[in-house]
Specification:
By secondary structure, the protein is an alpha+beta fold. It is built from 11 helices and 19 strands. The strands form 4 sheets. It has a 6-stranded mixed sheet with strand order 10-11-12-9-3-13, with helices on both faces. Strands 14-17-16-15-18-19 form a 6-stranded antiparallel β-barrel. Strands 5-6-7-4-8 form a 5-stranded antiparallel sheet, with helices on one face. A hairpin with a 2-residue loop joins strand 1 and strand 2. The radius of gyration is 21 Å and the shape is globular.
């Protein structure tokens, strides 16, 4: 096994986002034998493509690809996704389908989403809060339908799934309504096709559907080459793109069909981490955790308007969260910010100070942006030093590097809006 300390050293050669290598210690990423790890349904496809497999949340996942005609360095993979299209295997994440006449009421009791007013076929980013208003996990929630009827489709993070499912089961035991939880995890494929040319690929493969009218956040049940799939126009890169759910029997066939498209290159964890950081998106366990409230993290917008109204259905931690949302940033002592800096790129845990020497916070994610060719980071700083333009100092390996608080995203997002 090549453990985390060796992997961090190798990160400099790979151009990897530093935050991914902090995940080495926290989540357990490491180059390793995959014999004792869980494998997604397209594990063998990753190997054929030259996937460099690592331990991520107890799954063997590709950190990058090598020695294949479509293989890119991590830096070039980021650029390829920004300019063409990259295909990510995100099957390690956990899917849930909530069914029953009380499904909306239950899911609203354990998330901040306004599902009651969410249109059919529409999805939204939400959070699962705890009693103190902290974040148990961030999650995607979609109101949809299938052959079994209308239901709520949800995706949760792989590393959080065991605790999330336990939390849901405990709440279900006290709920008493008509709702069932159908977990779909290792028995299906889940792929993210991301980048400006992703829509060109999808339109060519599914010519009977007009993607021109599919907004970012919309979802549809479609058929591709005889395969029934569930397609959401969403993703976690800041680019236009799609997440595609496919039943087990067609998981490999669909992956191969997508990867053979000329615009598409395979992309791994290394590129994904840098892309989401450039887009100003949080990584659970680093930029948000069970002590972080939505207001602190700049995620108050995830609390649906209908959930804020007097008499609205309460949710776990609603007293804390709704009070902070109503009062705004003044209700919290620190806020998540973006920072650009000089010198060596900031690492997770690096101190953020004022030029006077006063320590005001810490970095939670950091990298060199291949698109901006500049050091970028996010972290939490004490108010009122979260204001855009605040001059700061970031300490990296004992050296003080000048930086500035900036607005996020670092790289403009390109979420599609239909005409």
């Amino acid at each position: 096994l090549i453990r985390s300390s060796m992997l961090v050293g190798r990160s400099k050669m790979l151009g990897f986002a530093s935050n991914t290598f902090k995940a080495v210690r926290t989540v357990g990423i490491r180059f390793a034998s995959t014999s004792n790890l869980k494998k997604t349904l397209v594990y063998d496809e990753h190997i054929k493509l030259g996937g460099q497999m690592v331990d991520f949340a107890e799954y063997a996942m590709p950190v990058q690809y090598k020695e294949h005609e479509k293989a890119d360095s991590i830096i070039n993979s980021v650029k390829h996704v920004r300019n063409k299209a990259g295909l990510f295997d995100v099957s390690h994440m956990c899917s849930i389908r909530w069914r029953g006449k009380d499904a909306v009421a239950f899911v609203e009791s354990v998330t901040v989403a306004d599902i009651e007013n969410l249109p059919m076929g529409k999805g939204t980013l939400s959070i699962i809060p705890n009693e103190k208003g902290g974040i148990i996990d961030d999650t995607m929630i979609t109101k949809t339908t299938d052959k079994k009827g209308d239901h709520i489709y949800q995706v949760i993070n792989a590393g959080c799934a065991p605790k999330d499912l336990k939390f849901f089961e405990e709440k279900l035991g006290k709920f008493g309504g008509d709702v069932s939880m159908e977990v779909q995890w290792d028995n299906r494929g889940l792929y993210a096709l991301q980048g400006p040319e992703a829509v060109k690929v999808m339109q060519r493969l599914i010519p009977v559907y007009d993607f021109k009218y599919m907004n970012f956040g919309d979802a549809e049940n479609l058929v591709l080459d005889g395969m029934e799939i569930f397609v959401s126009r969403c993703g976690y890169t800041g680019e236009d793109g799609f997440e595609i759910f496919v039943p087990e029997e067609n998981a490999v066939k669909l992956w191969r069909k997508l990867i053979e498209q000329p615009e598409v290159h395979p992309a791994g964890l290394g590129a994904r981490d840098t892309l989401r950081l450039e887009a100003g998106l949080c990584l659970y366990g680093h930029d948000i955790d069970d002590t972080t409230t939505p207001t602190m993290a700049g995620l108050s917008w995830t609390v649906g308007k209908g959930r804020r109204e007097p008499g609205a259905r309460p949710f776990t931690g609603s007293d804390v969260i709704l009070k902070q949302v109503a009062e705004g940033p003044k209700s919290v002592s620190k806020m998540r910010v973006g920072i650009v800096s000089k010198g060596a790129p900031a690492r997770e845990g690096a101190e953020i100070s004022l030029p006077s020497g006063e320590v005001i916070g810490k970095v939670t994610s950091g990298a060199v942006s291949p698109i901006m060719m500049q050091n970028i980071a996010m972290g939490y700083v004490n108010r009122p030093h979260n204001k855009t333009g605040t001059e700061v100092v970031v300490t990296v390996r004992g050296k003080s590097n000048p930086g500035t608080v900036v607005k996020m995203p670092f790289v403009p997002t390109k979420y599609y809006k239909a005409p």
